[in-house]
Amino acid sequence: MSFSQSSPWGEPTIADLIGRRALTAVFQPIVDFDGGAILGYEGLIRGPAGSPLETPGALFERASHEGQSVALEHAAARACVTAFTELGCEGKLFLNFSADALVALGPTHDSTVDWLKRQGLGVDRLVLELTEQSTIADVRSFAPAIAALRATGVGFALDDYGTANASMNLWVRLQPDVVKIDRFFIDDIANDPLKFEAVRAMQHFAQASGARLVAEGIENAADLIVVRDMGIALGQGFLIGRPDPRAARKLAEPAREALGAGHIAVFPGATRSPVASSPSGGMAAAKMIVAAPALPTSATNNDVLDLFNRLPTLHALAVVEHDKPIALINRRSFMDRYALPYHRELFGKRPCMLFANASPVLIEKSMTVEQMAKLLASDDQRYLADGFVITDEGRYVGLGTGESLVRAVTEVRIEAARYANPLTFLPGNIPISSHIARLVGHRVQFYACYVDLNHFKPFNDRYGYWQGDEVLKFAAAVLADVCDPTRDFLGHVGGDDFLILFQSDDWRDRIERAIDAFNQGALRFYADEDRDAGGIHGEDRRGNPTFFGFVTMAIGCVRVDANVEEDTRYGSEEIASVAALAKHRAKQADSGLFVIGLEEGAAMMHAREAHV
């Protein structure tokens, strides 16, 4: 191909490429997850094959240097529309535009609509994407241009949402029909809890605004299954189909297999400390505030006595200077001292700082429970008797008691443990129940496997809780190692009880590997003499001397069949109860494994309850 013009680089100019129609359109499919049909295609552009300007990046970089960016965008759109209609493609055509290019379309939208009709493409099949390269100085003045275009019947999309320019501000002001989630958030979403939570937040906002979401950049089956199960409407990426000038009419085989997969995704869970990530962690200090007056440093001990007498429930008094707490006076200590003979006469008119604690424990109102918990483990335990001062950016706001601190930390730790076990950080009872409900609701077959450790209590009694915790962490690691994180859900019920919800076809082999790996590995936690003896001496639950073998793993499994009629389906509590029954049978089996069907197990459980 010869060119009549050239750029300073000795290559054809963008204007020449446009004039000679040297741009090639390629199309990447966008799939509707509900049914797996191709909803439409994103039209993309390529320069002359084999040339330095073949890639869109190089093409648009050159256009920017030559001041031809808007012209290139419009030419690319025309090339995509022409090729799309010539191919006879069904569905919608998504076209990329910068803000400047969209505004430039405004005055000519009538002629654009007429041209589209002549090409045989209805305006209702066209979706204009505002790209992330767009920097919009004034969104208010930009919005009318978008409204004028949408009035013609075209759809409007916000592209690459989550990047610097594709912000929630634009989403709220422009109210797009479609929002395309930037590939950064989709890549490895199956293993990244923060990306998962970010996309879930986008999903909540999309539901409120009425926009449909497109997950861009899907390149593996695990990510596709996660966004599918999240309820994202549409997807795009190399796994679904690569950009192709012929516009693929069906999904790539790996994408079809992933969409038709019978198992549901295991959503990635948070791995941070459950206390630190507790939703109430930052509010605990604020909830503990006891509103209490404070005295200035100029106050006397008689002033302290008068205040304590007027407020009999006040456990302490803060001394402040310029709103900053500098000391704390404990009620009991102060009143006991004043009960001594002549103390009021001797010290009543002297400064209150005489009997004050000049280095009180200070807690910021915004302090997390994790930070407060460190106080409980510190050497300074004065807060238990004196209480402490609560501040807001260093300014006095009230008092707190040692009892309220212990209660707050305990309550949040208990609540957090329901979501994630504080020792292993594995999901706790609430996520376990939630995942069982998802499995049952999707009517997929799975195996609920209850894991318990034989002889763990005697081991704990002999070697101590620290060594016992090491055994529990080892058990968690062994179980995690045999699970497929995209199919199998591992939770920690509490103590030495774990629960696995298997969707892997080779679940039995995985279980047998876990039992063998744990039973062999647990021997290293014993002293040499106990290993030589084959176990340890201890007491049973009735206090009788007993010899206990090594800690071993027992797993009771319940098969929950797919497509069970809704009126006969069991909930998470019933399934967990039958799994616990199977666990007791597994503890009696030489192999450490027992498997039972849900219906049979439920009947056994009900018969036992009736007998009792």
UniProtKB/TrEMBL annotation:
PROSITE patterns: EAL, GGDEF
Range of residues in the leader sequence: none
Any GO MF annotation of the entry: cyclic-guanylate-specific phosphodiesterase activity
Pfam families tied to this protein: EAL, GGDEF
Superkingdom: Bacteria
Occurrences of domain EAL (ranges): 7-257
Residue intervals of the GGDEF domain: 444-601
Name this protein carries in UniProt: Diguanylate cyclase
Organism: Trinickia soli
Lineage: Bacteria, Pseudomonadati, Pseudomonadota, Betaproteobacteria, Burkholderiales
